Each structure stands twice: as structure tokens, then as C-alpha cells.
Amino acid sequence: MTGSEGPPSFRLAYVPGVTPDKWVRIWNERLPDVPLTLTQITPAEAGGTLLGGDADAGLVRLPVDRTVLSAIPLYTETTVVVIPKDHLVTAADEVTVEDLADEIVLHPLDDVLGWEPPGRPALERPATTADAVELVAAGIGVLVVPLSLARLHHRKDLTYRTVTDAPGSGVALSWPEDAHTDLVEEFIGIVRGRTVNSTRGRQSAPGQAKDERTGTASARRTPAAAKKPAARKPAAGRQASGKQSGGARRGSGGGTKGGRRGKPRGR
């Protein structure tokens, strides 16, 4: 973030293969008054750019120096081998490292996989991944890179296949440990998919409900009526006194018995 002398802005660095377009668009929608500027850097330049204050945050490739840089891993890329379209490897949908054992596997100086590739080494290492792609097109060898770099340096005469057991390349959002600003936090929220009104995990305490008018949490109270059931009202016809109801029962019972004791009517 720039100093207090001018309006706020946000500077985002990114390495080749990473596409920040979606996050930049969301930033421009949410913070139209804070311009976001993009700077492409090489993976080797990432640490120096962030620590030197030339960017507020960066979309970089792992690993980073965690003693001075914070990082949020975002995803790990699939690794592929770049080959000519008429190469034997194209007969399979995916290959293993062992399948490349007889190939000349180019190892550019800006390699981001951090490994010793399989196969036979070239006479010298290409300076860049772009140079290595040109050598593949010339039929000099093959190249193992993250998928995004294969797409970035795409050529009509080349294709690629997944290498199932090669190391992947992790991409992370990183910033200086001592420069976690409000704008950095805003971008973290965008990358993590937070909504504009996200409370970032703040919730009402258990046993509390939210007042729809004030938006504040209030303790839930059980109405007194719900705690103790109301007395049951007597059914209709039972409000007479005990003597009256008792007499009625005796009277009706006697009438029935009396009818049975009477003499049969004459025929």
C-alpha cells in the first residue's frame, strides 16, 4: 500500500502462468476508488519484489521464505510434458516419469518444479522456459512443466500429456509478514471467496437469537405459558355440583332397573 501522501492503491505482482483476471475484476467492482495495478515478475524475483516494497502482495509459486513472507496456498497445478504432435508419447493419454527415461528432458534455468528431471540431460540448460519450448519444437528434446506454462507457450506444432507422478507446482498468495494491511486483507477475502457482507466467522453465541430490527444478538427466552401448561378446563356439562351430578347418575340408573322389575303388560 502506498504512503498517506496520495490516494490508496493496491499493487499486485504475479508470475507467468497465473491468471489473476477474475480476482482483479471482483476488486474493481468492490473497491472502485482503489486502483489495482498488475506487475508480472519471474518466480525468482517474487521474494525480492515483495520484501522490497515494490508490490503489496503477489501470486507466486511455492515455496516462499516463511520467516519473512506470509502465504496462503491456493492450488497445485498438474504437471505435463510438452512434446511434438507426432511424438510417440502422444499415443497415451497420460505418462509416467519412467516413460521419459529415454528422452532428452530439457531443464531450463527458470524451472519451477524444483527437481532433477528424468531422462538424458541436454548439453546445456536453456535460459528460460520459452527457450526450452523452442527447442522442443525443433525436435531437440521434451519439456516437463506446470500445465499453465504449457498453455502459456502453446504452439500449433506442439501438444502435451499429463505426467502422473511428477511433482506439482503450488501457487500461493503471498505478502510481507510485517505488511498485512487492510487492503491485503481485502484481497485475501476476494481470493478466498468471501462475500461483500461476510462476517468472517463472527456468529451469535449459542443460545442467542438475532433481533431482526436491531441486528443484535439477544438471549432466547421461553415464554411463561410454554414453561407451564394451562389448567385444563372442565368439559361441557360437567360444571354442575357433585351432588347434582351424582343424583342424576343414580336417578337414571334407578329408572333403568325399575323398568326391568315392572310386570309385563297385558296382551
Kindly state the number of beta strands: 12
Report the portion of residues in β strands. Answer: 15-25%
How far apart the termini lie comes to: 120 Å
Uncertain spans: 201-227, 237-263
What order do the helices and strands follow? EHEHEEEEEHEHEEHEEHH
Radius of gyration: 40 Å
Envelope shape: elongated
Helix content: 10-25%
Largest sheet data: 5 strands, mixed
Separate helix tally: 7
Structural class, judged by helices and strands? alpha/beta
Question: What is the residue-mean pLDDT, rounded to a whole number?
Answer: 82
Strand line-up across the major sheet:
2-1-3-10-4
Notable characteristics:
24% helix, alpha/beta, 267 residues, 12 strands, 7 helices, five-stranded mixed beta sheet, elongated
Description:
The chain is an alpha/beta fold. Helix content is 24%, strand content 22%. It is built from seven helices and twelve strands. The radius of gyration is 40 Å and the shape is elongated. The N and C termini lie far apart (120 Å). Mean pLDDT is 82; it is low at 201-227 and 237-263.
